[in-house]
Specification:
198 residues; alpha/beta; Arc Repressor Mutant, subunit A; four-stranded mixed β-sheet; 8 helices; 38% helix; elongated
């Protein structure tokens, strides 16, 4: 998995890539005259964890291809991350329609990929930390970002059922929302046929 890195990491990667490309290996000693030992270790830790460097052997590293890194920075990570969540949640609204319609309706694109997730008000700080740790932009109530992002919908209580390993609001709620919007007519018809409800 590739993820975004801080500015100092990008500059270090640019230095390594311009000197060694992706074929030649190098060691941490490349930064001996530039950075302190703790900062040098931090640079390599960040680049390895984010997937921008690969370990070739003991103390030996190589740059990954920039095309691979940038192509995968916008990969969808939220559904897999949610399987590790330790607090109650429910995909809601358009995200629930998406899941219940077996993705017959989808709101995903590389440019803009929102997830609407109902969470308990008392857990908002947990969820912000949960997504920050996975480098996924997260907003409470409303917000937007390039690529994948989460909009938390704080609530006093949550109704959720399991579907495909994810917690999602009940089918009746997703169908009611889809029925009320002409843009989601196809998803509504799909759910009506699939689950035999109206």
């Amino acid at each position: 998995m590739y993820s975004e890195i801080p500015y100092f990491g990008m500059r270090a990667y640019a230095l390594f890539f311009s000197r060694f490309g992706t074929a030649r290996a190098f060691g941490q000693s490349e930064l001996d005259f530039i950075l302190s030992e703790p900062m040098k270790k931090k640079v390599f830790f960040v680049l390895l964890k984010a997937g921008w460097l690969e370990k070739r052997g003991r103390g030996s590293y190589a740059c990954r291809k920039p095309a691979d890194i940038f192509a995968h920075l916008l990969d969808f990570r939220v559904p897999d991350a949610m399987k590790q969540a330790r607090r109650p949640y429910a995909f809601s609204g358009l995200s629930a329609i998406e899941i219940w319609s077996d993705y017959a309706y989808t709101q995903r694109s590389m440019e803009r990929s929102p997830y609407f997730i109902r969470v308990l008000k008392k857990d908002v700080a947990y969820w912000k930390g949960f997504f920050a740790g996975r480098k996924v932009p997260c907003f409470a109530g409303r917000g937007t970002a390039i690529g994948e992002f989460v909009v938390l919908l704080p609530a006093g209580s949550i109704k959720a059922v399991q579907k495909g390993g994810l917690c999602v609001e009940p089918l009746e709620e997703a169908m009611a929302e889809a029925k009320g919007n002409e843009m989601h007519a196809y998803a509504y018809r799909y759910m009506e046929e699939r689950y035999g409800r109206n």
